[in-house]
Amino acid sequence: MVNYGGDEVSALVIDIGSSSLRAGYAGDDAPKAIIPSSYGYIPPSVHSDNGDVRMNESGASESVSKAKSFFGHSGPSIWRANMEIGNPITDGLITDFGPIPALFRHALEDVMRCSASEHPILVTEPSWNTTANRERMAEIMFEEFQVPAFYVANTSVLNTFAAGKGSALVIDIGQSTASVVPVVDGFVLRKGLQHSSLPKLVHAHARHLLTAPNPVRRPADLYPYQLISSKQAVEPNAPPRYTLREDRLAGTTQSWREWYEAREVEEWVQSVAGVLDQGWNDQLIVQHRQHKQYEFPTGYNAWFGPERFGVGEMYFHHSPQLVAGNPDIPKHIPGLITDSLRACDPELRQVLISNVVLTGGGSLFSGLADRLGSELARSFPHFKIHAPGNPIERRYGGWLGGSILASLGTFHQLWISREEWQEHGKAIVGQRCK
Amino acid sequence: MASASDVRSILSLPAVSSPAAGPSQPKNQVAVSNRKPEGISRELYSLIGPSAPTLLAQLAQPRLKQKPNLGGGGKVKWEWRLFKNGARSDSLKLGHWVKATDNPDADYKFAKYNAQPTVYEWSQDEYSRHLEDSEWTKEETEYLFKLAQEYDIRWHIINDRYEYPSGPKREIEDLKDRYYSVCRKLIRNRTWAGDEFSKSQLLLSFQYDKEREILRKKYVASLANRTPEQIQEEEALYIEIKRLDQNERQFKRDRENLLRTIAGVDSGLPDIIEDDASLIIADPKKKKLKGIDLDIPQTPVLTAPVMRRPPALNKNAVYDTTHCIIRNDPPSTTPATKVAHTPAYFRSVRISYPKAGIADKVNALLAEVGVTNSRLVMPTHANCQRLESVTDAATNLIELKRVLDKVNLDIEVLKNRLQLREDGGDSASVADATEMDDRGDTAEPEGENGRSQSVLSARSTRSRKHTRRSMSISSVDTTVATSSRPSTKRQKRM
């Protein structure tokens, strides 16, 4: 059973990102539990109706512990009166540890039906994670979940491993953050680490495109299905005919509504938006590119032409006016790559650029890999992009790498054991997980 | 992969032994121990013995192909066993599935991959004696070595993580240089247990040339920092150089050919080649700027190589004799063409051999006097000359002898003629008589044997008649046979 140096000790791998949390057994090729990172909660002030509303700064996590929370697939996506939506992740980092144990517990116990105290657990972290964060994570794991052993690994390194490499330039495009990380021999070069909230910019651009008044199209209303009681089929670009569920409108919180609208925009982006593989070209778009039809939950539907390619263009090019208007606009991907490589040793640049790993769910954006290839070809004579064609591998590359790592026989000496945790305390995390 | 039986044994389920098992389950045959009796061949016994194929086997139900049994067959008991990793310092016990037959006390088999690099340490005394460096404090050096151990001497990582508080900014070359120089000094100054060779090998492995590395990295960086335009220009220049080079070579070839034709110089024109080389190396930028004009070479100097002929031509007799130089002056009468020119050669090649017609005789003669005419063992100038003179003498002798023989023969012939002329009539009657005999001989088989006639038919009877006649007439003048056509013609005219 010892193939390729593997030795499975039934470890668990948990990979948490802005959009979803992935958990599963090490050695599998796909996570068993994939649940949204966002969760719904009904604040106790409304829930208990006692009126003792605490308005202090750390109120969010405090209130969550008392609040009734909803996790998983039937958590935030189901409409509940007065349900707020929270997300523990900001810019790829866990900023609110309050709901984390509950999220993990839901994934492990409710979805996977296993007990964390029986399995070593490997948790992922973004490359720019803080020491305090990873120590907090270790604390949660050892103190709350009673895990026998724990390890925290870097998503960029894991993505490199998932691609079967030791050194790579990992371009990870997630839901909220895009990062370019040079990995050499399984270690992140921190000086070359670059990340920006580019996907958010793209999202905002798409939202603006859909909702702002427009000479060609009417702005779309982004009501979710949950708030629509009935609708009628209408002609493309005709005003939609639908009725809202007035009973729900009152109980709908702003955060739930925003979350759902973001989902609507995301869905539109995923199904309609794209990027040209050779850069923006007005003539090409007018001549060859197909228009795509899309219908919103309100029944409003329209054909989207050239503008759907403008969305993807945001990943690679920012117009001078836009940059002038927003000085701290997130850097686009070529900019991130250039900055990252500039910080690396000249000797490494060729190694890295010939081992580009494209990963993350955002990288599944239509035409992005091709465009990235043509962008790289402009500045580098020899480059190679490793982009798995399988969307599961692309989306859960970090988890997959963790699954590989935690099932290696040689890895088991690296686990932080419970004993070590009790002996050395938090310092052991930084020593062991470099 | 675990087979079904593995899974069953893992889950502690009883093994399925009912006949209703799947087709992949081979039935356990009762082992019948019937040995092959002595004296019967194996092939025969397999046909007639108890295991002989029966019809039953062919009538049996068709089955699926058996799965290959890779696990060596039989049941394998697996168990979840806790193990201790020898590479760990704590008592963490992880569990994994192993075969129950495996030795539970064996070391964890991945522990051996936990190889630690050798890390050098030093005492305070050693440091103050050998390792002092104005740029490095002892603490920083220790920090560097700690990092080196932590990251297994992966320099790019060490450089990335190197954050020594209040230390100067260090480049990766500084770190490497310090590390390797400390290691070298320690190896050099410590007592070495092994032999000298292994010590020098180890020292060699810690060799590091900082300046060179920095220079190399600069090259790498400059190579990487080229703009596309620069790369294009570089490529264009490269192609241009190639083209120029080709032109140059073509030109050189042409010139050489020309020189051969004109001055009769053959190989070995080093000055010309040098001339070309200097021409090619000349500033490529300048060439590039000039562009296409350069297709016409700048230096069509035909006279230059001729003028610069080495001073081998100045004839200094004193110099030659002191250095034993003997010159073979080319014959001045021959035109200075390529054909006339002779490149360098061995002296022995020039030894003249006798003419093919009389070579055998000359060789025989030389052998008679005890001189071998084959290659000289020591073909010095004097030896060659002497051999040549001997050969010449022999040749002359042979020639003279031939002439003498010829003259003697002529005298003999003329004497005979004189004799013939003195008694001419006798000889004519004799000739007639022989002719008549000859005719009788040929006529006789003509009637008898058709075959001989056909053989003789190549000669026409008419020509034979002529022959006969001419013979009778001309027999007086000559003894030579007169069947040739010119003579018959002459006869006709007469």
Automatic annotation (TrEMBL), chain A:
PANTHER family, per the entry: ACTIN
Pfam families the UniProt entry points to: Actin
Family: Belongs to the actin family.
InterPro entries assigned: Actin, Actin/actin-like_CS, ATPase_NBD
Name the record gives this protein: Actin-related protein Arp4p
Species for this entry: Lentinula lateritia
Automatic annotation (TrEMBL), chain B:
Leader sequence segment: none
Keyword Iron: no
Region (Disordered): 15-34, 422-494
Pfam families in alphabetical order: SANT_DAMP1_like (PF16282)
Keyword Metal-binding: no
Keyword vocabulary terms for this entry: Chromatin regulator, Nucleus, Transcription, Transcription regulation
InterPro entries tied to this protein: DAMP1_SANT-like, Homeodomain-like_sf, SANT/Myb, Swc4/Dmap1
UniProt biased composition (Polar residues): 473-486
Residue intervals of the Myb-like domain: 128-183
Localization: Nucleus
Listed Gene3D superfamilies: Homeodomain-like
Superkingdom assignment: Eukaryota
Family: Belongs to the SWC4 family.
Its biological purpose: Component of the SWR1 complex which mediates the ATP-dependent exchange of histone H2A for the H2A variant HZT1 leading to transcriptional regulation of selected genes by chromatin remodeling. Component of the NuA4 histone acetyltransferase complex which is involved in transcriptional activation of selected genes principally by acetylation of nucleosomal histone H4 and H2A. The NuA4 complex is also involved in DNA repair.
PANTHER family given in the database record: DNA METHYLTRANSFERASE 1-ASSOCIATED PROTEIN 1 (PTHR12855:SF10), DNA METHYLTRANSFERASE 1-ASSOCIATED PROTEIN 1 FAMILY MEMBER (PTHR12855)
Protein name: SWR1-complex protein 4
Source species of the chain: Lentinula lateritia
